[in-house]
UniProtKB/TrEMBL annotation, chain A:
It comes from Rubellimicrobium aerolatum. PANTHER family: ABC TRANSPORTER PERMEASE PROTEIN YPHD-RELATED-RELATED (PTHR32196), INNER MEMBRANE ABC TRANSPORTER PERMEASE PROTEIN YJFF (PTHR32196:SF63). This is ABC transporter permease. Pfam families: BPD_transp_2. CDD domains: TM_PBP1_transp_AraH_like (cd06579). Keywords: Cell membrane, Membrane, Transmembrane, Transmembrane helix. It is a multi-pass membrane protein. The lineage of its organism: Bacteria, Pseudomonadati, Pseudomonadota, Alphaproteobacteria, Rhodobacterales.
UniProtKB/TrEMBL annotation, chain B:
PROSITE patterns: ABC_TRANSPORTER_2. Keywords: ATP-binding, Nucleotide-binding. PANTHER family: CARBOHYDRATE TRANSPORT ATP-BINDING PROTEIN MG119-RELATED, SUGAR ABC TRANSPORTER ATP-BINDING PROTEIN. SUPFAM superfamilies: P-loop containing nucleoside triphosphate hydrolases. GO terms for molecular function: ATP binding. Pfam families: ABC_tran (PF00005). It comes from the Bacteria. CDD domains: ABC_Carb_Monos_I (cd03216). Residues 7-251 form the ABC transporter domain. This is ATP-binding cassette domain-containing protein. It comes from Rubellimicrobium aerolatum.
Length: 360, 260
C-alpha cells in the first residue's frame, strides 16, 4: 500500500489514553444540570415545594391545613387528567388543541345519551368513552397516516368537535339535581372520602374520586412510559421519528395509539367534569386545552418532544393550583395568577433549553 | 471459486422517473469479508445499499441471502433476515439510554405475569446484555449503560450503533460512511471496531469516500459507476489513484473481477 495512509498510525500507538472516554464534569452547577437532565421532573418539584412553603409562610395555617391542600387537588383534578393526555401527545413532539373540546363533547354525550334517549347510564358512559377514543384515533390517523402537522390537525378538530358539541346539545344544560336523582353514576367522580375529619364531617383531608383517579392515572402512565416497550417507543418517536423508524419502531402505530389514548383520557376527564361541576354543560371546560398545555410546559416537558415525565405534568398542574388558591387567599387580584403563570411558563422553557445544553 | 456469496444481487434495476439509479447491477458479498463499496456521487451506490437493506424495492432483479431468494419491502424485514444497517445518521434516540437504544424495537420483557400482562421490560437483562456486547467490542470506556446517548461522543455513538448491529445474531452488517463525521482518533477506533466485527465472522459492507480507510480495512472493493458494478478490485493490487480513476471514469480497469 502507498505510504500516505500511515499518518494515523501515530495515533494508534497512544491508544492507552482511551479514545472514547466520558468526562464527568464535577462543578456543582454542572452536576445539578446533569441531575435535571436525568430527572426532568425535579425542577417542577422544587418549584412546587418552594411555592407551597412560600404561601404557607405568607398565609399561615389557613393555607397549611389538610383541607386547603386537598382543595387544591380537587381544583386541579380536571387539568391534571387532561394534562396527562396532553403530556403523551407533546412527548411525541405533537400538540393536542382538541383535548378540551373532546372532554366537553364526551361529557355531553354521556349526559344526553342517558337523558335524551334513556340509554342505561353505564352504557351511555361507555359510549362517551368510546367516542373520546374514536376522536383521538381520528387525530392520530390524520397526524400519523396523512402526515399533517399536529397543530393544524387539532386546531381543525378542536373547532369541529366544539361546534358539534353545541349543535348536538342545542346549548342545553342538564341540571345537577336531575343527574343526582336519575343518574348518580354520572357524578361518580364527585364521591369523596375524608381522612381526619371531625364528627360533623368538617375539616380534614378530602379526596374526591376524581382526585384519586388523577393520581392513579399518573402512576399507571408513569409505569407505562418507563417500564414498557411502548413507553420507550413514545420517547423515541418524539425524539427522532426517522431514527425510531429505522430502529424498527412502528412509528405510525405508536402515534395513533398515543392520540387514541389521549382521547380516551379526555373522555374520562369529561366524566370527571360532570362530577366536578355537577351538571352537564356544553359551555364548560373551554379553557382546558390552554390550561393543560400550561401545566405540561411548567412541568418541564419539552414541546420539542422526547423529554419530560408525566409526573412533571402533575407537578405543573399543582403549581398552577397552588398559585391560584394561594393568591386568592392573600386577597390578590386574580390577574396576578395569570401574571405569575406567564412568568413560570417562560422560566420553564428557558430551563428546558439550559438542560438540553448538557447534550452539547 | 467454490465459496458461494453470502449475499448476492443479480440484475438489479431501480428507476426514479427517468433517472436510472441502478442499471442491471450485480453485487456479491462473500462470507467473512469486508467489502467496500465506492463510487462517485450519484453513481447509485446508496440506492444499491438501500435495495439490499430493504429501504428501496428494486424494479427488477433478484437478491439472494445464503443462496435463498429474498424480497424485502421494509428495512425491518431485511433486519429480521439478518441484514443490519448502521445508517450515517446512526438512527438512535439521543434522549434515551444506551441500553434502550440497543434494544429499540426488540425489547425484552420480564418472564411471567409482569412481562405478559403488565408488559414490564426486563431492564437488568437488557443492561447486562448491552454491557456484554460493548465489552466484547472493547467499548467499555463507556461507564454507565444508562447514560443517555446524547452525552456520548461521536465515536462512542458510532460504537454503540455498530455494537447494536453486531449484537443480534446478524449475518451481514452494512456500514454507511461510518467515519465521515469523526476525528482522526475516533476514526481509528471505529476502523478497529470494524476489524473486530469481521474477526467474529460477520461480513461487512462498508460504504465510504475515505480512500485510506477503504484501502486499509477492505478485503475487496466494489467500484460502482453509472448505476452498475464497474469492477471489483483487491486493495493489494491497485493504488488509491487507480481506484479513483476507475470510479470517475478516467481509466478503464483491465481486470473486471477479483473474487474472494
Amino acid at each position: 500500500m502507498s505510504g500516505t495512509d500511515n499518518f494515523e498510525a501515530v495515533v494508534q500507538e497512544r491508544r492507552t489514553e482511551a479514545v472514547a472516554e466520558f468526562h464527568e464534569d464535577k462543578t456543582l452547577i454542572k452536576r445539578f444540570q446533569h441531575a435535571l437532565h436525568t430527572t426532568p421532573a425535579l425542577v417542577p418539584m422544587i418549584v412546587l415545594i418552594a411555592s407551597i412553603v412560600l404561601f404557607g409562610l405568607l398565609i399561615g395555617n389557613r393555607f397549611f391545613s389538610a383541607g386547603t391542600l386537598t382543595l387544591i387537588l380537587q381544583q386541579v383534578q380536571l387539568v391534571g387528567i387532561v394534562a396527562a393526555a396532553q403530556t403523551l401527545v407533546i412527548m411525541t413532539a405533537g400538540i393536542d388543541l382538541s383535548v378540551g373540546a373532546i372532554t366537553v363533547l364526551c361529557s355531553v354525550i354521556m349526559g344526553q345519551f342517558a337523558f335524551r334517549y334513556g340509554i342505561p347510564v353505564p352504557i351511555a358512559i361507555l359510549c362517551g368513552l368510546a367516542l373520546g377514543t374514536a376522536l383521538g384515533t381520528l387525530n392520530g390517523w390524520l397526524v400519523a397516516v396523512m402526515k399533517l402537522p399536529p397543530f393544524i390537525v387539532t386546531l381543525g378538530t378542536w373547532q369541529i368537535i366544539l361546534a358539534s358539541n353545541f349543535l348536538y346539545s342545542a346549548n342545553e344544560t342538564i341540571r345537577s339535581q336531575e343527574i343526582e336523582a336519575q343518574a348518580p353514576l354520572l357524578q361518580f367522580f364527585a364521591n369523596t372520602f375524608k381522612i381526619g375529619a371531625d364528627e360533623n364531617g368538617r375539616g380534614g383531608a378530602t379526596f374526591t374520586y376524581g382526585v384519586i383517579f388523577m393520581i392513579l392515572l399518573v402512576v399507571v402512565l408513569a409505569y407505562a412510559l418507563r417500564q414498557t416497550a411502548w413507553g420507550r417507543h413514545v420517547y423515541a418517536v418524539g425524539d427522532d421519528p426517522d431514527a425510531a423508524q429505522l430502529s424498527g419502531v412502528n412509528v405510525r402505530g405508536t402515534l395513533i395509539s398515543v392520540y387514541a389514548l389521549s382521547g380516551l383520557i379526555c373522555a374520562f376527564a369529561g366524566w370527571a367534569l360532570i362530577g366536578r361541576i355537577g351538571s352537564v354543560s356544553p359551555t364548560s371546560g373551554a379553557e382546558l386545552n390552554i390550561q393543560s398545555i400550561t401545566a405540561v410546559v411548567i412541568g418541564g416537558i419539552s414541546l420539542f418532544g422526547g423529554r419530560g415525565s408525566i409526573v412533571g405534568a402533575l407537578f405543573g398542574a399543582l403549581i398552577v393550583g397552588v398559585f391560584s388558591l394561594g393568591l386568592r387567599l392573600l386577597g390578590a387580584d386574580a390577574q396576578w395568577t395569570f401574571f405569575f403563570i406567564g412568568v413560570l411558563i417562560i422560566v420553564a422553557v428557558a430551563v428546558d433549553q439550559w438542560i438540553r445544553k448538557v447534550a452539547a | 471459486m467454490a465459496v458461494e456469496p453470502l449475499l448476492k444481487g443479480r440484475g438489479l434495476v431501480k428507476r426514479y422517473g427517468k433517472v436510472v439509479a441502478l442499471d442491471h447491477c450485480d453485487f456479491d458479498l462473500y462470507p467473512g469479508e469486508i467489502l467496500a463499496v465506492i463510487g462517485d456521487n450519484g453513481a447509485g451506490k446508496s440506492t444499491l445499499i438501500k435495495a439490499v437493506s430493504g429501504a428501496v424495492v428494486p424494479d427488477e432483479g433478484e437478491i439472494f441471502l445464503e443462496g435463498r431468494k429474498v424480497h424485502f419491502t421494509k428495512p425491518t424485514e431485511a433486519r429480521a433476515a439478518g441484514i443490519e444497517t448502521v445508517y450515517q445518521t446512526l438512527a438512535m434516540s439521543p434522549a434515551l439510554s444506551i441500553a434502550d437504544n440497543m434494544f429499540m424495537g426488540r425489547e425484552l420483557r420480564k418472564p411471567g405475569i409482569m412481562g405478559s400482562v403488565l408488559r414490564q421490560l426486563d431492564r437488568p437483562r437488557m443492561e447486562r446484555f448491552a454491557r456484554e456486547k460493548l465489552t466484547e467490542l472493547g467499548l467499555m470506556t463507556i461507564q454507565n449503560i444508562n447514560q443517555a446517548v446524547e452525552t456520548l461522543s461521536g465515536g462512542q455513538r458510532q460504537g454503540v450503533a455498530v455494537a447494536r448491529a453486531a449484537a443480534f445474531g446478524s449475518k451481514v452488517i452494512i456500514l454507511d460512511e461510518p467515519t465521515a463525521a469523526l476525528g482522526v482518533k475516533e476514526s481509528r477506533r471505529v476502523l478497529e471496531l470494524i476489524l473486530d466485527v469481521r474477526s467474529r465472522g460477520i461480513p461487512i459492507i462498508l460504504i465510504s469516500h475515505n480512500m485510506p480507510h477503504v484501502f486499509e480495512v477492505a478485503d475487496r472493493i466494489h467500484v460502482h459507476r453509472l448505476g452498475r458494478r464497474l469492477c471489483v478490485i483487491r486493495p493489494q493490487n491497485h493504488t488509491m489513484s487507480d481506484a479513483v480513476a476507475y470510479m470517475t471514469g478516467a481509466r478503464v480497469p483491465d481486470t473486471e473481477f477479483e473474487t474472494a
